[in-house]
Amino acid sequence: MKHLLFFLFTILAIGCAHPKLANPTPLNAFASSEPPAELAKEIVKTDSEIEKPETTPDNEAKTPISEHPTILIEMNEQVNLWVDRFTKRNPEVFVRLMEKGRPYRTMIEETLISHGVPKEFFYLALIESGYSNKAVSGANAVGIWQFICGTAQRYNLKCNRSVDERRHPIKSTRAAAKYLRDLYNVFGSWRLAMAAYNAGEHRILGAIMRGKTRDFWTLAEKGFLPRETMHYVPKFLAAVIVGSNPEKYGLTIANGAIAPLASRFDESALKGRGRYAVRKKFPTIHVVRRNDNLSSLSKQYRVPIANLKRWNGLKNSRIRYGARLRVRAPARASKTVYRVKRGDTLTAISERFDVSIQKLKNWNGLETGVIYRGQKLVVNKGA
After folding, report:
1. Chunked mean pLDDT (size 10), the chain, 383 residues
2. Is the pTM of this model over 0.70?
3. Whose C-alpha in 47, 192, 249, 342 is 20 to 30 A from the C-alpha of 30?
C-alpha cells in the first residue's frame, strides 16, 4: 500500500521557523492549522530517501478503517522503566487514575473502535490528563484529550468564551479519535501518530526527514525527537501493559458496575450562551418545600410552568407544602425508528441521535457495525 509520507521542504522550513517551536511544550500544542490530510497532499519528496523497516513502520500492519485496528505492544528498556514507575514507585497514583477513568472506559473504547483506532488508546487519556476534563496544561491544552483551541476547532469542537467543548468527554473523544486516525493515515504508524499528537505534525515530519526513517525507536535513539516525546510512547505502552494485567504487578483496580457517565459530568464546564444540551438526570417527583413555588421549580428543573401545571393537573399556580409534584415528563411509550440512507454509518447515526453505538447494536440485534440502505433502526427505545 502506498504511504502518504512524501516530505515537503517548505513545510519543514516554515515549521522550524515558527517561534513556538523553540521550546518543547507538552501535548499537541504544535498541531498545524491544517488537517493532517491537507499536509499529506502538499508533501512532495519521495519515499525513496526514507529507510523502510522490514515490514511497515513499527512492525504494524496498515489497518483499513473498516477493520478492527491493533497496535503492537512490546517490552524494552524504555517501556520497563515506566512499568517500574507505575508499579513500584507510584502504584497508588496509577490505581487512582485508573479508577478515575472507569466511567469513561466503555464510551472511549467504543468511540475509538468505531473510528478505526485501537481501543488501547483509552490509556492515552490517562497519560494526557489522568481522565480529568478540568485538566489544563502550560500550553493551554484543555480536557481529557488536552486539545488546544486551534486543533479543537479543526475537529468541530466549540472553543470560545461561552462554550468549551474540549471539556465535553464524549465530543472531545470523538474529535481525538478522528485526529489520531488522520495522523495514522499520514504517518502510517500508530507510534508516530502518538508522537505527532504529543509534539505536533511538523516536528515529526522534520524528525523523519533528518533521521531518514519512520521507525519511532530509531528516531528516539538518534535524538531526533523532543525529549518528552521520546518518553511519551514508552509511557503509553507501559500503561497499556500494567492496566491490562494489574494483578501481575500486585495492583488491585476495582471493576464492575459504575455510575453512568452522564450523571458524573461537570455541568459547569459547558455553561454558556444559547442552547446547549447537558446530560443531567433530574428526579421525576419533587416534594414541595416551604419556600417552593412554580416559578422556582421551573428554573430548578428547566421546564416551563405550563408543563408543570399540565403534568400535575393544576388549574392555578398554588402548590401545597408537602405535595408531590411531577417535574419530568412521563416516559413516552413509543420508540423512534430511523431508515438508513445512502452514506449512513452507525457512527454517524449514533452522533446524530446522541446515543451510543453499543445501544444501537443492542436495540437492533446487530453483531457488527454493518448497516444497509433502507434498513430500519431503532434509535430511541422509548419507555
Report:
1. 32 30 33 47 42 46 55 91 94 92 92 92 96 88 94 92 90 96 93 95 93 94 94 96 93 62 48 50 76 89 88 89 82 74 85 82 87 88 62
2. no
3. 47
